[in-house]
Amino acid sequence: MCRMALKLTRKGERGQYGDRVPPNQKVTDGWPVLSYGSTPRVDTKDWRFAVAGAVDKEISFSWEEFNALPQATLSCDVHCVTGWSKLDNEWRGVLFSELMQRIAPKPEARHVMVHSYGGYTTNVALADLQQPNVLFAHTHGGQP
Predict the structure, then answer these.
(1) CA contacts within 13 A on the Cβ side of 20
(2) In the 3-class helix/strand/coil scheme, how is the chain assigned residue by residue?
(3) For the ranges 24-33, 82-91, 117-126, 132-141, which has the lowest average pLDDT?
(4) Cβ(62)–Cβ(48) under 8 Å?
(5) How far is CA 87 from CA 71, 95, 143, in A?
(6) Residues near 44 by Cβ (< 8 Å), separated by ≥ 6?
(7) Is the pLDDT of residue 11 over 70?
(8) 30-54 confidence digits (pLDDT tens)
(9) Residues 18, 13: Cα–Cα separation, whole Å
(10) Which pLDDT does position 40 carry in this prediction?
(11) CB count, 10 Å around CB of 13?
(12) What is the pLDDT of residue 14?
């Protein structure tokens, strides 16, 4: 099920925001709730960030250990394929480059399979994760 709650603005997004907004996108002040199934509620004492597979040594972080890693704050615009844009988002979390200092992928590793609570999975090219400013965010706009 896909649920959305958006406040869209329609007057001249391209003229008002220039190249920041792709053609046919609508700017929103809200934040949509998009879910693959129900939204899982995970107690931070049970939360884990684990790295396994094509690595020299598997590692796992608890919530406290993950948040003890160096933190970064980044700002960006978000443009969704469903046609909305949310500008000036502030995110806080752990840069992938910080994790790479603790992960030793095997030379043949090319992709990462991300697993999340609730059963959702997606694959991402390792080269994409290694780009600057890739962040595993835990905070958006000052809110968890």
Answers:
(1) 16
(2) CCCCCCCEECCCHHHHHHHHCCCCCEEECCCCCCCCCCCCCCCCCCCEEEECCCECCCEEEEHHHHHHCCCEEEEEEEECCCCEEEEEEEEEEEEHHHHHCCCCECCCCCEEEEECCCCCEEEEEHHHHCCCCCEEEEEECCEC
(3) 24-33
(4) yes
(5) 22, 21, 16
(6) 63, 64
(7) no
(8) 877 777 678 778 899 999 999 999 9
(9) 7
(10) 79
(11) 20
(12) 57
| pLDDT for 90 beyond 60 | yes
One-letter amino acid at 67 equals N
pTM for this model (two decimals): 0.80
Contact between 65 and 47 (Cβ < 8 Å): no
Percent of residues, the chain, with pLDDT higher than 70: 88
Tokens 């690595």 sit on residue: 55
Residue 96, phi then psi, degrees to nearest 5: -60, -35
Spatial separation of the C-alpha atoms in residues 40 and 37, rounded to whole Å: 9
CB 26 within 8 A of CB 84: yes
Give dist(CA 76, CA 19) in Å, integer: 14
